[in-house]
Design goal:
Blueprint lengths: L1 H57 L8 H6 L2 E10 L7 E11 L2 E2 L3 E7 L11 E7 L2 H8 L2 E3 L6 E3 L18 E7 L2 E4 L6 E4 L1 H8 L5 H5 L10 H10 L4 H4 L18
Parallel strand pairs: 7-8
Antiparallel strand pairs: 1-2, 1-5, 2-3, 2-4, 4-10, 5-8, 6-10, 8-9
Helix pairs in contact: 1-6
């Protein structure tokens, strides 16, 4: 009898341990799934914020990015709420997304990180929104490399402001990248020389479910993910992919699969 009771107790202990083990594994899987969903939701919110930044900036014609500049831009990057990460020498850090023209429309968005220590934030160091426009093939090639430093790999300059600004201004001559900042309603060009733009690989994996290179995404090899089409539609609204611009990227470098629907 004692032997039977001992065996039963041993069995029940083993069963309880097994149940606890599988329960904890289930909780771990649920926690990981919840974290992945939260991370993806955060990225989609950032993409939506980038769309709102463009809408708000272009909604003030006398202080917006000139239409001519946008029509010539090869790539557009938006970083909502760039923040200062240290006092004094320190630096600046922000996350955003970039998209480039292809023969069929604007590419799927590529998550980016911008860091730099050589420029100061406006109005006492609060967060600012950044917009960067890549204006020519050299700048685009630098961006496609997934990591480059403004001023070293590509020249940078503060962009002109005002939607009706003419085509005969200095921006047309030299800069590979034109940059803008906005804080507390003030919008102006800003010189980001010394800042580094890199692919955010962690967010790329989360957004696309696997690692995709900058080149694959920005040349149109990757379909636009769920949650990004509003941003791409906003970009296309202010910088339509005209027949002239469709020739900016060689057909061999672009594939229709990466274009967002309705972006032709």
């Amino acid at each position: 009898m004692r032997s039977t009771r001992s065996a039963l107790i041993t069995y029940l202990l083993a069963l309880s341990t097994t149940i606890l083990l599988f329960t904890s594994l289930g909780w771990s899987a649920d926690d990981k799934g919840d974290k992945d969903n939260k991370d993806q939701s955060d990225i989609v919110k950032r993409i939506d914020a980038a769309s709102n930044v463009l809408d708000e900036i272009m909604g003030t014609p006398d202080k917006a990015i000139p239409d001519k500049v946008l029509s010539d831009a090869r790539c557009i990057a938006v970083v909502p709420s760039m923040i200062k990460i240290a006092v004094g020498f320190g630096g600046n850090h922000g996350k955003g997304v970039a998209t480039c023209r292809t023969t069929r429309g604007w590419s799927a968005p590529a998550p980016i990180t911008v860091t730099g220590g050589s420029w100061g934030l406006q109005l006492g160091g609060q967060a600012v929104d950044l917009v960067m426009l890549v204006m020519n093939e050299k700048g685009m090639n630098s961006l496609l490399g997934s990591k480059f430093k403004l001023g070293a790999n590509a020249s940078a300059a503060a962009g002109p402001v005002g939607r009706d600004t003419g085509a005969d201004t200095d921006w047309k001559m030299k800069a590979e990248v034109l940059s803008y900042s906005r804080a507390r309603g003030l919008f102006a060009g800003i010189d980001l020389t010394g800042s580094a733009i890199t692919q955010d690989k962690d967010e790329t994996r989360i957004l696309y479910g696997k690692m995709e290179t900058f080149k694959q995404i920005l040349l149109g090899d990757v379909p636009a993910p769920q949650g990004s089409h509003e941003f791409l539609a906003t970009v296309a609204k202010y910088a339509p992919n005209t027949p002239t611009k469709q020739g900016n990227v060689k057909p061999s470098e672009s594939h229709p699969s990466g274009s967002a629907p309705g972006n032709n």
